[in-house]
Amino acid sequence: TQLLEQSPQFLSIQEGENLTVYCNSSSVFSSLQWYRQEPGEGPVLLVTVVTGGEVKKLKRLTFQFGDARKDSSLHITAAQPGDTGLYLCAGAGAGGTSYGKLTFGQGTILTVHP
Amino acid sequence: KAGVTQTPRYLIKTRGQQVTLSCSPISGHRSVSWYQQTPGQGLQFLFEYFSETQRNKGNFPGRFSGRQFSNSRSEMNVSTLELGDSALYLCASSLVILGGFGDEQFFGPGTRLTVL
Known about the structure:
The structure holds two protein chains of two kinds.
Chain A: E1 5-7, E2 10-14, E3 19-24, E4 31-37, E5 44-49, E6 55-58, E7 61-65, E8 71-76, E9 85-92, E10 102-104, E11 108-113
Parallel strand pairs in A: 2-11
Antiparallel strand pairs in A: 1-3, 3-8, 4-5, 4-9, 6-7, 7-8, 9-10, 9-11
Chain B: E1 5-7, E2 10-13, E3 19-24, E4 31-38, E5 42-50, E6 53-57, E7 64-68, E8 74-78, E9 87-94, E10 106-107, E11 111-115
Parallel strand pairs in B: 2-11
Antiparallel strand pairs in B: 1-3, 3-8, 4-5, 4-9, 5-6, 7-8, 9-10, 9-11
């Protein structure tokens, strides 16, 4: 069974601070996706990382996939109140038992105070 | 391009009843996955359909079932509802470029089911 441990679970910071969210597993994933979810809505895809060691940037957000494709991180620079939300990492496996299945971390609730 | 749509958005049922939820994927997407989201368990995979066939199933009881139609629209059904089935049910569609592994999934807004 593949598991993804996401940390921290809660993050409360002031506007302008930097933060990092971590996603770790003992399993290898074929890809890893990061989502952001607002209350009462579905998760919105932010980025997909596929290659070990890959780094992707989306404005103030930087995503990294570990060399062994077992872990990932999300770094936000100069956080803004609009960044507030639930951040989820999700790993996709390989093989027949992984068709259409994402394994999700427990999520990080980020609150950015003005 | 329209996103994933789910109907209804909200449902209130009582224990023992059954419920059917509907999902329309993004045009051209042939894979539909279903997830249950609760505060305690997070997002848990229910099942995935591709070309009207269930290819994968999570660890949920047989009361949870689904199907997919030829236009890729999908439904999930929960019979004999229990209080613990109260959750946000999400469907996600995928283009299936990589053979079903690692493809990006795009989520709908979800159906909030409350069982009383």
